[in-house]
Predict the structure.
Amino acid sequence: MTYAEVLERIMRGDYDDASAEERSQAVRMSIQACAVASAAVTIQPFPLVDTALLAPIQIGMVQAIGRIHGHRLDTKSVLEILSTLGASIVAQNAIMAAAKFVPFLGWVVTISMAYALTWAIGEVSDHYFSSGRGATSEELRERFKSVYRAKREEKQREHGSNDSLKSRLQQLKEAFEAGLIDEAEFDRKKQDLLSDF
């Protein structure tokens, strides 16, 4: 099943008769798509904008996971669920904003953080809905922290050290400043490097 087919089925609310495997696959595909989208939007260079860009992606993901599990949620309900994670999300967004003030390395950090943050929210949402909305706040917070740490470490291992990426980004910047590549080529290559992260 493609992402488009899964999204269309979610929007129709067509998971009432779905098997556990179909629901699980739809949840995984939703989390993956939203985590990648979250990482992509953090490529923009402005501090404090990430939260405004990430929130709609994360709210939509929680709504989609709720629908897969048979729940219809308005934005207020989703915000209540996210508030259970409270300080964790606020703290991560504050760290991402601060990291943007560090050229190149800050972008790398925010990409892995946004990916892991969104993935953790998705995993916790899946647990919350699959448990019949009976999970405790403490259980959700602990699960969030555990998944977030694991995903962030996995993402960093998967793409090598930050120093390696920082070095490649610095080389790209130096090539641009030396006039070896134009701004369009610089932007394209930077996007390629960061999207591979």
About this structure: The chain has a mean pLDDT of 82. The CA atoms of residues 86 and 115 lie 18 Å apart. The radius of gyration is 18 Å.
